[in-house]
């Protein structure tokens, strides 16, 4: 079975060390991040601590700092780092031909 991928645009449309959001069913959002070394990650746009919008946080290395309480979330795993505990769901993402694609099945789970 092949994954069903949703094309969300060109890699260059995501700022380096920044993000963009993609709305999904149920009012949920996926935050798609681009790191300084041009790797791309996608997480549900909700900090596990108080639900802060991770897409508005500061990307440093392969982490994002939540804008509400500065929790650091690993982009690859969605896990809070340091002494903080919690996890944000990760959405599979890939770049193909300069286009960024997220796994449609995962976006449906995020909305559930």
UniProtKB/TrEMBL annotation:
InterPro entries: Rieske-like_NirD, Rieske_2Fe-2S, Rieske_2Fe-2S_sf. CDD domains: Rieske_NirD_small_Bacillus. Keywords: 2Fe-2S, Iron, Iron-sulfur, Metal-binding, Nitrate assimilation, Oxidoreductase. GO terms for molecular function: 2 iron, 2 sulfur cluster binding; metal ion binding; nitrite reductase [NAD(P)H] activity. One of its GO terms (biological process) is nitrate assimilation. The keyword Acetylation does not apply. Residues 13-102 form the Rieske domain. This is Nitrite reductase small subunit NirD. It comes from Sphingomonas gei.
């Amino acid at each position: 079975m092949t994954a069903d991928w949703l094309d969300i645009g060109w890699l260059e449309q995501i700022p380096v060390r920044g993000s963009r959001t993609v709305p999904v069913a149920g009012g949920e959002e996926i935050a798609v991040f681009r790191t300084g070394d041009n790797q791309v990650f996608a997480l549900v746009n909700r900090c596990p601590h108080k639900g802060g919008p991770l897409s508005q946080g500061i990307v440093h290395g392969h982490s994002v700092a939540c804008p509400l309480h500065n929790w650091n979330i690993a982009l690859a795993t969605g896990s809070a780092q340091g002494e903080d505990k919690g996890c944000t769901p990760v959405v599979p993402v890939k770049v193909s031909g300069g286009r960024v694609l997220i796994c449609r099945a995962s976006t449906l789970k995020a909305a559930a």
